[in-house]
Amino acid sequence: MPRLSANRRRVLVTGGAGFLGSHLIDRLLERGDEVLCVDNLFTGDKSNIDHLTGNPRFEFMRHDVCLPLHVEVDAIFNLACPASPIHYQHDPVQTTKTSVHGAINMLGLAKRLKCPIFQASTSEVYGDPAVHPQVESYWGNVNPIGIRSCYDEGKRCAETLFFDYHRQHGLDVKVVRIFNTYGPRMHVADGRVVSNFIVQALQGNDITIYGDGGQTRSFCYVDDLIEGFLRMMDAGPDVHGPINIGNPNEFTIRELAEQVIALTGTGSKIVTQPLPQDDPMQRKPDITLAKQQLNDWEPQVQLKEGLERTIAYFRKKLAA
Ligand code: NAD
Ligand code: UDP
Ligand code: UDP
């Protein structure tokens, strides 16, 4: 694909075959952009982008972001990184490399091309937070040597690199901190709580609550999140973040299990399993900054509706 003409952007999405990346690509194509999807398919799935085969404005490249990438694009969304604890803990050294070497390579690319670059950072930079809800000015409470550190510290270092490239090389960086997001195209074996509970419920298996289920998370439906991504990339040259993007409605994990049981009508029972090491006890974004800087952005889809859509997706997927 040749580089863009003045009125059409060519956009690179790393991690584009994953859950969030594939939704982002759909929105970019819908609005007329050209998309180059770069993914090594570690946790991503070609089935997430199969529907784009044959679209002349879409191109897939199998590539690991830990290696240099020489392409011509007008904007970069850097999403490549396993996101679920079971996946990022499978090869923790590779996880840190993906965040850090991946960031360096994509920032080097953005520097050469003088193009804006977006980073999918995470609420995990706050660790097990002592400040609640989490505001962007909070520096976090992260164990540097635990089993989650490869992900948390990798993402923290990536943020450092983004802001140093901004200060040192004048790059237009756009960093968002994503809070727990769910929706269609999560992998059946993803391991994160929403997909686990729904798949367990639909298969009539026990619903596995880790710990007593009193820990909290605030769940954002994927469409709301992607709208926030697009507004961030389109925000003016003075907006760099980090900005929290998430749904501030907070639930305990037990409440989530009960909602999934009610909405699926399953006969599954709740069982408890040990709480993993360093599992954060509470999490809820303060989204004041997102509202201010991203044109009144706020989530539109509440948990019940989002769960219904996600359950419908998994019903079809499991029946296929
Ligand atoms: P996902 O696992 O579905 O997608 C990640 C994608 O990155 C996959 O397609 C995977 O194959 C690809 N990838 C991994 N390592 C790579 C490498 N070295 N080179 C190229 N591609 C690679 O996860 P997701 O939920 O879509 O997450 C996307 C991004 O958003 C990640 O950076 C994640 O850290 C961040 N994030 C997600 C959430 C969430 O709740 N979904 C929360 C916080 C942050
Ligand atoms: N890089 C890349 N594509 C490019 C330009 C750079 O992948 O088009 C990589 C390059 O391999 C380098 C990294 O980005 O390792 C950082 O580039 P930068 O120019 O910041 O640093 P330097 O090359 O001076 O180490
Ligand atoms: N969790 C759970 N049962 C599961 C999967 C996860 O109780 O089958 C818990 C997990 O311990 C954590 C919360 O749900 O407290 C969210 O876990 P997830 O892996 O989805 O996201 P993260 O911990 O990264 O926020």
UniProtKB/TrEMBL annotation:
Q: Which domain of life is it from?
A: Bacteria
This one is known as UDP-glucuronic acid decarboxylase family protein
Q: Which cofactor does it need?
A: NAD(+)
Which is a Pfam family this sequence falls into?
Epimerase
UniProt entry keywords in alphabetical sequence: Decarboxylase, Lyase, NAD
Q: Name one GO molecular function term.
A: UDP-glucuronate decarboxylase activity
Concerning SUPFAM superfamilies, the annotation shows: NAD(P)-binding Rossmann-fold domains (SSF51735)
Q: Which organism is it from?
A: Sphingomonas floccifaciens
What sequence ranges are listed for the domain NAD-dependent epimerase/dehydratase?
11-246
Q: What is its EC number?
A: 4.1.1.35
Q: Which CDD domains match?
A: UGD_SDR_e
